[in-house]
Write a structure and sequence with these properties.
heterodimer; A: about 170 residues; mainly beta; 3-stranded antiparallel β-sheet; 2 helices; B: about 425 residues; 11-stranded mixed β-sheet; 7-stranded antiparallel β-sheet; about 10% helix
């Protein structure tokens, strides 16, 4: 059972969930050869395929109308881990298939669409990002390309592969 | 980012353009401004104050809105400028001043009548004595003459405006870990000399042929001109003459001209400019800040920030334009930790030449199949200054603890403090 804009739809379906840790444009490579990943937040994406049973043509048509409304954002209630999650999401496209049989019967089937969350379900505030407990980026001591850093006892050290020494 | 207008805070913003800047040469007074689209149903009135903060409510600017128009059903474009923009619209009369403080000149000559707002000023700058002749001019030009002659600039990111002297002593270091790949440098043409004309005035009726000026009341002053020229000592013989001349700025006198020339030499004789993008922590780089950052693994660049634009993500990055730059080689420092003749560990660092380092010495924990040694350094820090050459520093250590693993025996040899609570021993 899931809902769009307050209306529940008890329609058989398969749901594929993706969590995207979306990075901002200021992500990039630093001069110490560490990649800084500036994650704005975790955004959910649901790929939903419906299997509307025969005889449910009215439900199919009504659902198609709702899904294809030219609205920027819908409110979805969807399954999430042990419960449900409410997200503001957008639908960019809806597709299905038209089938015509030799006996002249025809029908639409297989609605598929993707719900992309407009707001993150998880994010850190700027102050939390700065104090998140991750160690600061190493102030590089001139290591050569391919060097591996190890964070030990509150300090960055790198391994000299040739001599197997810690620096 | 948060925009606040008339007590209402707006967080749904986009297309923020915010590039604070100064002119190190004080040849102009740049008016800092910003442009942003705000998601609101409200009308945004012109003339209101606009505040810009980061998400932790650190102040970034306090401006006045001079334009607001709806761009679509959801967003209003707002443009705002620092208070100094009002100075263009007002003029001040010609006057000769002598022995008046810099602050009094601001109060009675620049920020008089018209659009009045509060400002702050460094005490040493406020107390400087101004002597010179100022023609009838706009208030902005009057301010520019003062900033040029007294080594000052307008910080338009502190309060409404904060007048400061250029700080040539304090350097802000930016580590590699906060510098994006990869800064760049550009080289301008050589400036072969700087030539400034400075003035003195005597009140009186000029004779034929005398140069003179006249103030708003008709009082005449006979003008004497002199010139000061600084030649660039680092110019190759093949360089074509390229002289920066400042002439006609009658706030320059025999007391201030040398300092002005030195500051201009700092800017023009170095001829190097740099651009770098840096990741901000909980502070931001403001224009006029002297910064040092790495160009690559072997060089650093030190210069003054002329402009600093903001790029917003979950955190904030700034793109800096540096002027008056010097480029220095980075040298390697090896700090060795020894116990007697035995080398326990070595740490490698890279710093620019002349850098005064202070590195916290670590506790060393060395394990072998039957023994474990904990060594403590005899000095808390390894200190020194980086030279142009090989840099080494040896730090002596002593054995603090020795654990014989096959005998389950612990020798406590050299520690600062020790506490035992039952079977638990805390050692410092």
């Amino acid at each position: 059972m899931w809902s769009i804009d307050g209306t529940e739809w008890d329609v058989p379906c398969t749901i594929e969930r993706t969590s995207e840790m979306t990075s901002s444009e200021i992500s990039g490579m630093m001069l110490d050869k560490t990649y800084f990943n500036d994650v704005i937040g975790t955004y959910l994406k649901y790929d939903i395929k419906l299997a509307v049973p025969k005889g449910w043509e009215h439900t199919y048509t009504e659902l198609y109308k709702v899904l294809t409304d030219p609205i920027g954002v819908h409110v979805f209630v969807l399954p999430y881990s042990d419960g449900i999650v409410t997200i503001n999401g957008r639908i960019d496209s809806v597709k299905d298939v038209y089938v015509r049989k030799p006996n002249g019967k025809m029908h639409w089937r297989g609605i598929a669409f993707t719900v992309q969350a407009s707001t993150p379900t998880k994010m850190y505030e700027l102050g939390e990002l700065l104090q998140i407990g991750l160690p600061p980026l190493p102030n590089d001591s001139g290591a050569a390309e391919g060097t591996t850093y190890v964070y030990v006892d509150g300090d960055w050290q790198y391994i000299d592969d040739a001599e197997d020494n810690y620096y | 980012m948060i925009v606040e207008i008339d007590g209402t805070q707006y967080t749904e913003i986009k297309n923020l353009s915010f590039i604070p800047q100064i002119d190190i040469s004080a040849d102009t007074v740049p008016i800092n401004d910003l442009s942003v689209d705000i998601n609101t149903d409200n009308d945004i009135p012109v003339g209101m104050e606009l505040y810009l903060y980061d998400d932790m409510y650190h102040d970034l600017c306090k401006y006045i809105i001079n334009y607001a128009d709806r761009v679509d059903a959801e967003f209003v474009r707002v443009e705002a400028s620092s208070m100094l923009y009002a100075l263009d619209n007002e003029r001040v009369q010609a006057e000769y001043v002598s022995g008046i403080t810099f602050k009094d000149m601001l109060d009675y000559s620049v920020f008089v009548n018209g659009f009045v707002f509060s400002y702050e000023i460094e005490p040493t700058l406020a107390a400087k004595i101004v002597t010179g002749f100022f023609p009838e001019q706009s208030k902005r030009d009057r301010l520019q003459w003062l900033l040029l002659a007294y080594n000052a600039y307008a910080d338009q990111q502190t309060g409404y405006v904060y007048f400061r002297e250029l700080d040539q002593q304090t350097t802000t270091d930016i580590p590699k870990g906060r510098t994006y790949w990869k800064p760049s440098v550009q080289y301008a043409d050589y400036v072969t000399a700087i030539k400034l004309t400075y003035y003195s005035f005597v009140e009186g009726v000029p004779a034929q042929g005398d140069k003179y000026v006249e103030d708003w009341a008709g009082t005449q002053y006979i003008v004497t001109e002199n010139t000061l020229q600084l030649n660039n000592p680092n110019v190759p013989q093949t360089a074509l003459p390229n002289v920066i001349e400042i002439d006609g700025v009658m706030s320059l006198n025999s007391n201030n001209v040398s300092e002005v020339a030195s500051r201009l030499a700092l800017l023009y004789f170095t001829r190097i400019e740099a651009q770098a993008t840096v990741l901000c922590d909980d502070t931001y780089i403001k224009p006029a800040t002297k910064v040092r950052l790495y160009l690559d693994d072997t060089r650093t660049v030190t210069g003054y920030v002329e402009s600093a634009s903001y790029r917003v993500g979950a955190r904030i990055a700034q793109t800096l334009k540096l002027v008056a730059c010097t480029v220095l080689d980075v040298k390697r420092l090896i700090v060795s930790y020894v116990y007697g003749d035995m080398i326990l560990d070595r740490r490698r660092f890279s710093f620019p030449i002349g850098f005064n380092y202070e590195i916290l010495n670590p506790i060393l924990d060395i394990v072998s199949p039957k023994h474990r040694y904990v060594y403590r350094p005899l000095n808390e820090y390894a200190t020194g200054t980086i030279i142009d050459g090989e840099n080494t520093n040896t730090q002596q250590c002593d054995v603090a603890l020795h654990w014989y693993s096959d005998q389950s025996l612990l020798h406590i040899l050299s520690v600062s403090e020790i506490e035992q609570d039952g079977s638990v021993v805390d050692i410092g």
